[in-house]
Amino acid sequence: MDRHRLMIVEDDPEIRVLLTDYLGGEGFDVTAVTSGSDLDAALARLRPGGGPDIVILDIMLPGEDGLSICRRLRRDRPDLAILMLTARRDDVDRIVGLELGADDYLCKPFNPRELLARIRAILRRAAAQAAPPARRQLRLAGLVVDLDARQVLDAGGTDLGLTTAEFDLLACFLDRPRRVLTRDLLLDLTRGRDHDPFDRTIDVTMSRLRARLAPALPGGLQLIRTVRNAGYLLTVAADPA
Prior knowledge:
This protein is α/β, with parallel strands linked by helices. The protein has eight helices and eleven strands. A hairpin with a 4-residue loop joins strand 7 (143-146) and strand 8 (151-153).
């Protein structure tokens, strides 16, 4: 089996060498570059279909910053997974990165084993999206949720284009019907138990999920309701399609 391919974009030489050696030792095919222009050149040299599975992208880079690079990659290579690294502990970079379509983020300094775990989680989700045609489907307020293809379709069969994070969040409610799910529980289920207690990812992802679903729902239905001081509740039962 071919090894998974990673592209690291990191200008700090110590971090770049550490990640290259560590992830290479874990069985990945690793290429490391120092800037957005070097990334573009490296991608251009690859044969068709030979691009990386994941780009590990630092935000603070010389020249074009990581957020701008993320925006370009999401536009030009929508199937490419992006994991962003940030040296800032506040929410701003992380929220903007998620808004631009990053699949995950990690704050510096970090344990390389946590980075490895997040990479493997992204790869598992990507593998789930490549599931065979026989699929489990649910009907939810006029929508069809394809659990194996990880898609949500409107009444006309159009894919609503949920991101990995948005679908993972919706799946939490489908797996736990008629339950109020707290923000901390949703963080545990989607981010793991090592999340920052001040992490606002759920709030951002919930807002984006509601915006994706709203145009396809009948009569302005609020599919996921905020329960004050408690959490969130799926308001409609899902049935087998």
